[in-house]
Amino acid sequence: MSNQGESPMQANAVVAQPVNKRFKGLWSNYNYVIIFLVIFIAFLIINGSETSWTSITNIFLHSAILGTISLGMGLVIMTGDIDLSVGSSFVFIGGLTIIIYNVTGSIFVTLLFAIAAGLLCGALNGVLVGRFKMPSFIVTLASMLIFRSVSQYMMNEMGETRYRVEAGMESYKSLFGFGNGNILTIPQLAVVFWIVAAAMIYMTTCMKFGKNIYAIGSNERAAKLAGVNVIWTRIKVFAISGALVGLAAFLKIAKDTSFDPATSGKNFELYAIASVVIGGISMSGGKGRIAGIIFGTMAFTIIDKIITALGMNALLNDTVKGLILLVAVGLQMIQKREK
After folding, report:
1. Are the CB atoms for 229 and 208 separated by under 8 Å?
2. Mind listing the pLDDT tens digit for each residue in 33-92?
3. Do the strands 186-187 and 182-183 form a parallel or antiparallel pair, or are they unpaired?
4. Partner of 122 for a Cys bridge, out of 23, 152, 211, 238, CB 3.0 to 4.6 A?
5. pTM of the prediction?
């Protein structure tokens, strides 16, 4: 109850204060959900009567491969580092994985190889960053150039224009069926992405290793004093990121059965960073939730759908994405200043 001498304006201000506080708390904790809902509602309005359950499940499908890569990128960014090599290692691992499949014809061996190759590529970056204290930007920029270049060289030496799965393999139908099949109308690749995301959420919220990641990103010196093995943690983070790139390469093979070394994975490193930022993870490290990456990736995918629905020139696609990324980073900065 307000005091008798309190004016109506003062009373309204008292009521508005907790409302604003609740809104700020909601935005601070769930900004990635709010951003996703705004973009998704815009898609529903623009797409209008063309919207169907199939068009929505297509969003799930088209988010799966980039989303899997973005989960690893999110871990790296949480430690305060960056990985610019994910797009190039994606095509490099994908090319090698197709060769392994064409030789063995085994889906299981192919999957294991893709994850193991990705883990090794990521661990190499991690050793250079963690053990030898080299800047992650420079290390992953160098590996980005190396992986793409080697992949194109291999393809050129084979006298082909792209890596292709041999359709005559006995397991080809099973591989293609996995990449393009559904579980209760939900794309199987999306289900894989969500399962991996759930495992990552558990790791970052319930395991000591996940807490160490946040500690390093928040204050590396304090993490060292608290007994965190910063070097080994960084190596493991980059290795996990690489393994997820390998898994994403396998999903891409199952879906499309080919890799183009010149265009596959192009700008994936930038799209993954954008998905992470839209998902609410701070670029300075130590803040954010893995769950946000699910919404951030889907929001980023929906932008493509909106551009298509509006009939815009496809060349402006990255312009729109870049502007949205700037807005997302700007909102993060405003939130940080207010705190």
Report:
1. no
2. 888 999 999 999 998 888 899 999 999 999 999 999 999 999 999 999 999 999 999 999
3. antiparallel
4. 238
5. 0.91
